[in-house]
Every structure is written in structure tokens, then in C-alpha cells.
Specification:
There is one protein chain. It is built from twelve helices and 22 strands. By secondary structure, the chain is of the alpha/beta class. The longest helix has 18 residues. The chain starts with a strand and ends in a 6-residue tail after the last strand. 54% of the residues are buried.
Length: 522
């Protein structure tokens, strides 16, 4: 029976975040620890293991996993070289294997390497040789570089946004690898580059126009002779030479079909690209809308004595203030105080729940202890060019070590030491380091139920529908500053291909497919 080598290296960065990521921003696991962890979570490696474990006699060779604790700024050179060296050393020292499954992202970037995934694949080929099958799973927010395709046999990408198919993507990758290993298929890949950077609700695959492209990809992948298909929409905040959107199709030794279908997918995507942007509301308008909602609620309240203890019930009219410009899962710093500052300046008298990163403020909170009062600043500790520290006086309500499991997939998340601070009517959950905020687990882990607030700041462009949209009175997309702003023209791209939508007015699309196939299949 075959031996399958497994390795993982994942991070998504915003190159517009001035705070560099470091080695400490990764959870590193080796050998059997890799298997123990991933068998307990529903991510890609967990899905692959689910498939591999069902094959009698198959032997797993777990090597190395560097999994980002959260997204962040560009990976510092020393950290990248250490991770790359550890990754490749684990491949060199591994027992002989018959095939390889790699879990990667596609939007990783270091100071001196714009294509870390491609580099690791190319160096792995030098170690293991040209004949060993390699299948890679990727995030659809990655960049699909030529080097990645030249050194892998096939790729598999997420089909959902917001991402709910981590586990299933790993399963698809594992099944495809087993088919390649058995010798029954000869993968050939076609990719088409599309000059577009896209955002917005139309990307939600369950309801938006992007879902049309994904439906086509799924049908192709499940058709006779189809092996894998999908779309990459890149991470607009990872400004690297390969940043744009891509369609791809992998067939069983049918290059003509792969090329034809990839072009058709790309053309269908381009037909909708202008709709894939976000209508944004400025900070002043946000404050006006939020205040108006509080006034309307007050007008609708019954007279005194008309209802018993209504405040004890979950509040049904919560407004979500979506601060995607500071989305930590997209690589932003998490230390934006822009919305908090505007709510305070305008005298907002509702109760707001706000996450923010500020290690010095957390240190002061721990020194004061629960119930203590602190005069401190919040915000602007990581991205000082965008955010100025905001003075506050706060009461410390809760202190924690910041370790918890995600609501979505059960992964271990590490926010560092964390404090819950009350500032007038507002509640701040302040972490020492950025943590993913695409679900509610950070709030829940620190005793805060978003439904009990008039407003909640959501630092994520999209969460699963049930997290906020299903019960919030409205979702308000705020045009705040930040290194993951949907106002893409404000960021200052310098390395991605130009012209490109929406940065340039004259972006044009001439569909051309590029083919990739390992020499042994030709």
C-alpha cells in the first residue's frame, strides 16, 4: 500500500499592513502532532485524513505544518526563511513516499519572496524528484502562479465563500491524489488570467453572481473526464506580481477541453465583474444612521411601566457596522479605532460591542485587575500611519489568556492575553494580537453576546449568514481606513498587473488559456 506524505504551510497577508508578520504568528506542528490536531478539526487536512484513514493499509507520513494563527502583514524575511527551511528539512528527512498532499493558501508573501507556495513546491521537486505525484489544496483567495502549477500534478480550490468547505476541499484533494497515484488519470490544467480585483456581496456563492461561476466549476469537476475546477479571486490586499483573478480546469488528459472550459468560465466571470464591488457608507453617514436607529427605538419604547425589564431580553434590532478595512482574516492589523472614535465624537448613546488589538492597553488592564479603572489609549499600536491612539477611561470587566476554539470549525485560536473593557456604554474586547473575526467566537469566549448590543463592529467582509446577517437589523459596510479596505483605489497597488479593474478605467479582457501538464503524462 502507498505511503502518503502530508505537509502544510498557510498564511494570507495584506502587503498594505505595515506591521510585518513573524514566526510567532504561526502554530507549528510536526510529525504525529500534525495528525492529532487535524483529526480534531474540520479543515482541509482534516478532510484529507478522513479520506486517507478509510483506505486499508495506507501509511501516512506527517512532516510539518506552519499554520497562521491569523492573517497579517507581509512575512518578515527571517521568519520566512526559518519556515521554509523547516518545511523543506522535514521533506528531506521523511521516509520514502509514493505521493504528496500539500495544504497551502496562495496569498502568502514575504519581504523577499512574492510566491512562497511556488517556491516550496519547486524546492520539494528538487528533493523528491519529478515523478512523485503532488496534489495541492488552495484557498480561492490565492494567486495561482505558473510555478505552482509547473511543480504540482493538480490543484483543488475552495468552492464556497464565505468558506464553509474546508473539510470537503481536503477530501476532494485526497481523492484526486489517490486517483493519480493509482495511475488511472493523467491531469492536465488550463488557467486563464482575468484582470479584475473583486469584492462585495455578489461574491457570496450561495446568493451572488460569483456563485454562477462556481456552479459551472462543480459541474465540470463532477463530469466524466473532469478532475478539478474553480475560480481564484485573489486577495486584493496581497499586492504581488501575480495578483488578479483566475479560472482553472483540470481534466483527464484532455487539454483541448481544459482550455475551452477555462476560457468559458473566465468569460462568464468577466461578464459579472463590474457588479462585484462594495457600496460603502462613510463614517459620518454611519454615525447618522446608527444614531437614527437608536432614536427610532427610543420613540417606539412603551411608557414607563408598560413592559417589565425589557432590557434583560436579547436586543432584536442590532446593527452590524462592518469594518472590512480592518479584517484580520484578510491580513489587516486589527487595531483600527476609527468606528469607536466616530461613535464617541458624535455622542452615540447606544451600546456598541467592538473588537480591537492593543497589547499595551491589555497590559494595563492586567495590572489593574478585574473591577479596576484604567486611563489608557486604544488603537494605532500596529498600523500607526492610519490610526492615532484614542484616549479612554475604562473599567476592566474580564481578563483571559485569549485561547479558545473557533465557532466555525473548532480550530485553536490564540488572541494573546485579552481584556474586556467598558468605556461609557461601549464594550471593547481588546486582544494582544490579531485573531480571526469571521465568526463570533472571540466575543463568545469573552462573555459577550452580540445580540445584546445595539451595534456590533464586525471586522470581516463576510461571515457565514447565521453569524450576523440572519438576525441583525442591517449590515452597514463602512468606508473606514485600513489595510484591507474594499475601497481598493485607496490602497496604492504598485506590483500587480496593470491595467486592472477597478484600479484602472481601461482594463480589458482578452481570454487566453495557458496549459500545464507534468512530462510523464504527455
Amino acid at each position: 500500500m502507498p505511503n502518503i506524505l502530508i505537509a502544510e504551510c498557510k498564511q494570507e497577508v495584506s502587503t498594505f499592513n505595515p506591521h510585518l508578520s513573524g514566526y510567532e504568528d504561526f502554530a507549528v506542528r510536526r510529525g504525529e502532532e500534525l495528525l492529532r490536531y487535524h483529526r480534531g478539526v474540520r479543515n482541509e487536512v482534516g478532510g484529507a485524513l478522513n479520506v486517507f484513514d478509510a483506505v486499508p493499509g495506507l501509511q501516512l507520513i506527517p512532516t510539518y505544518s506552519a499554520f497562521f494563527i491569523t492573517s497579517g502583514g507581509t512575512l518578515a524575511t527571517p521568519a520566512w526563511h526559518r519556515i521554509a527551511d523547516e518545511f523543506l528539512s522535514s521533506i528531506r528527512s521523511a521516509p520514502p513516499s509514493d505521493a504528496v498532499y500539500f495544504c497551502m493558501h496562495g496569498a502568502m508573501a514575504s519581504e523577499d519572496e512574492p510566491d512562497p507556495e511556488g517556491h516550496l513546491l519547486a524546492e520539494t521537486r528538487k528533493i523528491l524528484g519529478e515523478d512523485i505525484p503532488i496534489v495541492v489544496s488552495l484557498d480561492l483567495h490565492g494567486m495561482l502562479t505558473d510555478r505552482m502549477l509547473e511543480h504540482s500534478d493538480a490543484i483543488v480550490a475552495y468552492h464556497t465563500y464565505p468558506h464553509i468547505d474546508f473539510f470537503e476541499t481536503g477530501q476532494r484533494a485526497a481523492r484526486l491524489l489517490l486517483r493519480v497515484l493509482a495511475g488511472g488519470v493523467r491531469p492536465v490544467t488550463a488557467k486563464v488570467a482575468i484582470p479584475a480585483l473583486v469584492r462585495g456581496d455578489e461574491l457570496i456563492t450561495a446568493t451572488g453572481r460569483f456563485g454562477q461561476s462556481i456552479q459551472v466549476a462543480r459541474a465540470l469537476e463532477n463530469s466524466p473526464g473532469g478532475l478539478s475546477a474553480g475560480m481564484f479571486i485573489g486577495n486584493p490586499f496581497t499586492d504581488v506580481p501575480a495578483l488578479q483573478s483566475y479560472s482553472f480546469v483540470v481534466t483527464n488528459n484532455n487539454p483541448e477541453r481544459a482550455e475551452r472550459e477555462a476560457i468559458q468560465m473566465a468569460e462568464g466571470f468577466w461578464a459579472n465583474h463590474e457588479r462585484m464591488q462594495v457600496p460603502l457608507v462613510g463614517l459620518d453617514e454611519m454615525a447618522r444612521i446608527a444614531a437614527a436607529r437608536i432614536a427610532a427605538q427610543a420613540f417606539a419604547m412603551p411608557s414607563e411601566g408598560g413592559q417589565a425589564d425589557a432590557s434583560a431580553q436579547p436586543r432584536p434590532a442590532t446593527i452590524a457596522l462592518v469594518d472590512a478595512a480592518d479584517a484580520t482574516s484578510s491580513g489587516a492589523s486589527g487595531d483600527s479605532n476609527a468606528i469607536l472614535r466616530k461613535l464617541i465624537e458624535t455622542g452615540y448613546n447606544g451600546r456598541a460591542l467592538i473588537p480591537i488589538v492593543d497589547a499595551p492597553a491589555v497590559r494595563q488592564a492586567f495590572e489593574a485587575g478585574v473591577g479596576g479603572m484604567i486611563a489608557t489609549n486604544v488603537g494605532g499600536t500596529l498600523d500607526a500611519k492610519r490610526f492615532q491612539p484614542l484616549p479612554i477611561v475604562a473599567t476592566v470587566r474580564l481578563l483571559s489568556d485569549g485561547r479558545f476554539r473557533s465557532e466555525s470549525f473548532g480550530e485553536e485560536w490564540f488572541a494573546g492575553r485579552t481584556a474586556v473593557l467598558e468605556v461609557d456604554r461601549h464594550t471593547l474586547v481588546v486582544s494582544s494580537r490579531p485573531v480571526n473575526l469571521y465568526d463570533r467566537s472571540f466575543f463568545y469566549a469573552h462573555g459577550q453576546d452580540p445580540k445584546r448590543f445595539d451595534a456590533v463592529v464586525v471586522k470581516s467582509p463576510h461571515c457565514q449568514h447565521r453569524m450576523y446577517a440572519a438576525w441583525c437589523a442591517c449590515m452597514l459596510n463602512v468606508d473606514a481606513p485600513g489595510s484591507s479596505s474594499a475601497n481598493l483605489r485607496s490602497l496604492g497597488h504598485t506590483r500587480c498587473p496593470r491595467p486592472i479593474f477597478p484600479l484602472d478605467q481601461n482594463a480589458a479582457f482578452i481570454p487566453q488559456a495557458k496549459l500545464f501538464q507534468r512530462a510523464r503524462y504527455r
